Amino acid sequence: MLKEAIATRYITPLREGGSLPGLVEADDLGTYVMKFTGAGQGRKTLVAEVVCGELARRLGFRVPRLVTLDLDPVLGLGEPEQQVQDLLRASGGTNLGMDFLSGALGFDPLAFEVDAAEAGRIVWFDALINNVDRSWRNPNLLMWHGELWLIDHGATMIWHHNWPGAEASAARPYDAADHALARFAPDLASAAAELAPRVTEDLLAEVTAEIPDAWLADEPGFDTPDDLRRAYARPLLARAAVIHDRIQGIK
Questions:
Q1: pLDDT tens digit string along 6-20?
Q2: How far is CA 54 from each of CA 15, 65, 163, rounded to the nearest angstrom?
Q3: Angle, to 10 degrees, between the axis of helix 116-129 and the axis of helix 188-195?
């Protein structure tokens, strides 16, 4: 399971994110970007962050370390902004934290170069998880210590918002025309040859085991959290084998 920590101080909201994540300190002396269960997009956003972030890590991508952060709602009582108070009050219990990469720069595809191999690996991965939020308008990539880091995977696996239609949704192609790395001639064939065989049933079971039970409880159509974990794994396993042939918009 993910490392557990307790949020001890809310520092400031980060307004770049639509769900109003916040910068917090925790009892392990870490500083984290915290994403809240009480935000408008709910716990499924946090599940997507864990599944895709931990899968990316195991496939060799650089992603900030993820932890669970326990939040006492009283932490928001002293906040002057009503929106922040409401968010903290609605998010008691288990939330998600990701390491704050101090000094990181937002990736600009016109200012930084990415080689075709790395571009191919990232585009292939985004196609696998159906990431619709890595466009040149909003890359969700950071440059930190001269290396490219992947962040913000909440807008992925859209099929988990409608489980009865998940199989059909997961079978659709991926349009990469607006992808932040499309201009770098991504080598998709090499990426697929390297990464697809590594996305196995065992690997996905390991990844989905990282999801806290609290975020999986009471999902309609599923009897147990483990049933839902297997439902998360199935589309990714099927998609890994074929998605390289379904990526559109890359010349």
A1: 999 999 998 765 678
A2: 25, 9, 22
A3: 60
Q: Give residues with Cβ within 8 angstroms of 93, minimum separation 6.
A: 37, 70, 71, 214
User: Which amino acid is residue 29, in one-letter code?
Assistant: L
Q: Which DSSP letter does residue 42 get?
A: -
pTM for the full predicted model? 0.95
Q: Where are the domains of the chain?
A: 3-99, 105-248
Q: Do strands 66-71 and 31-35 pair parallel, antiparallel, or not at all (unpaired)?
A: unpaired
C-beta of residue 207 within 8 angstroms of C-beta of residue 56:
no
Q: Which two tokens stand for residue 85?
A: 């108070």
Distances (CA, A) of 32 to 75, 77, 120, 164, 239: 15, 20, 29, 35, 32
10 Å CB burial of residue 208 (0-12, 13-18, 19+) is buried
